[in-house]
Amino acid sequence: MMRKKIYLMTTVMFAIALFFAGCNGGSQKDKETSKVKDKGKVEESSTINVTKGKMNDAMLVEISAQMTYIPMKYAEDTENKTPEEMVQIGEKMAKEMEDVYKKLGITEDDLSAYSEKMDKKYEKNPLKLTKIYEQIAKRLGELQEQGK
Predict the structure, then answer these.
(1) pLDDT tens across 11-36, in order?
(2) Whether the Cβ atoms of residue 132 and residue 45 lie closer than 8 Å to each other
(3) Cβ neighbours of 93 (radius 10 Å)
(4) How far is the C-alpha of 22 from the C-alpha of 132, rounded, in Å?
(5) Rounded to whole angstroms, how far apart are CA atoms 37 and 27?
(6) pTM exceeds 0.70
């Protein structure tokens, strides 16, 4: 069940990444360099403080950034692909996302529960939520730099 949810989430993020990749452009050399260096690894962030297995804002930042980055790095690989090849790419993305959860020692249910709690917590102070989004954007930038 969890694998299906992750697959669905990565598929949605993949569609968003395709949109941004189409807007982003970039040179052919940049794209080739990115393909060589990505190799599906999950990098440690200098901006997070993660305690394995205990969901916190830092984990939320890391997971959110990874959920955006993983589909983005596969976006250029989807050009002129058959539906079967697209499914295989989607499965690779889902596997990478599962690996992120496993590395952090949490489940998707942990993330969902924390997100609900966070929504209530930040409902009264949206400025704190904005700071979380800024951290996600910063971490996403780090991942993109590491992937070059």
Answers:
(1) 544 444 444 444 444 433 344 333 33
(2) no
(3) 24
(4) 27
(5) 16
(6) no
